[in-house]
Amino acid sequence: MYILKLCQGDLTTNVGLFHTIEEGREFISQLHGYHHDVIEGFEYEYFDPFKVPYYVELKYNGHIVPFTTFMFTGDGRVDIYWEEIVDLSIPGNGMIEGATRVDAYSIPNNEVKDYVVKREYNYMCVKEYLESKGHDVERAYFGSEDGEAILFTDPDEWHLLTHMDPEFVDSEDIIKDLDI
Predict the structure, then answer these.
(1) b/e for 46-58, b at 16 or more Cβ within 10 A?
(2) Counted domains in the chain
(3) 67 is a domain residue
(4) In the predicted model, is pLDDT for residue 94 greater than 90?
């Protein structure tokens, strides 16, 4: 199932839930100024809020959803996002489909446990190695766009060693691969 989200700046509006993205597109494409573009393999969906009438009713599957140009603030387009969710009320068969955010990266749900265990193992290997060489070690940049990183001192100045990204996690010999 997919939630239709409308985003403009810091404003996010959840509109409704659809079984498929195609159903949701059938609904939102009724809105004047709706665009669905595919550029270099990436999909972009949006509309110009100034093309939305003062008041319009979008009808779908017996529902009427009111829209107005006054729902939106600021200049610029309104981006459309589809967020997949699982109906946990229905009995499942194990791991749910989709991905989980781990730091700055989306990891398939069936790989999250192994990814996190390997990430922490590699971090501990690097930390122990650097500390054995007399360096102080810190984790930094948690929540940043590039994700968490390892910093170390040499001798009194902090240096960035690496971000703990998927390449860091995939390393079979992290000490050798980082050439430290």
Answers:
(1) bbbbeebeeeeeb
(2) 2
(3) yes
(4) yes
Range of the domain at 34: 2-87
Mean of per-residue pLDDT scores for the chain: 93
Asked whether residue 100 is assigned to any structural domain, the reply reads: no
Alpha-carbon torsion 60, 62, 63, 67, what sign?
Answer: positive
pLDDT in tens, 17-55: 999 999 999 999 999 989 999 999 899 999 999 888 999
> DSSP string covering 15-34, please?
EEEESSHHHHHHHHTTSTTE
For the chain, the distance separating the N- and C-terminal CA atoms, rounded to the nearest angstrom, is 46
pTM: 0.70
User: 20: closest CA among 61, 68, 52?
Assistant: 61
79 and 133 fall within a common domain: no
What's the residue count for the chain?
180
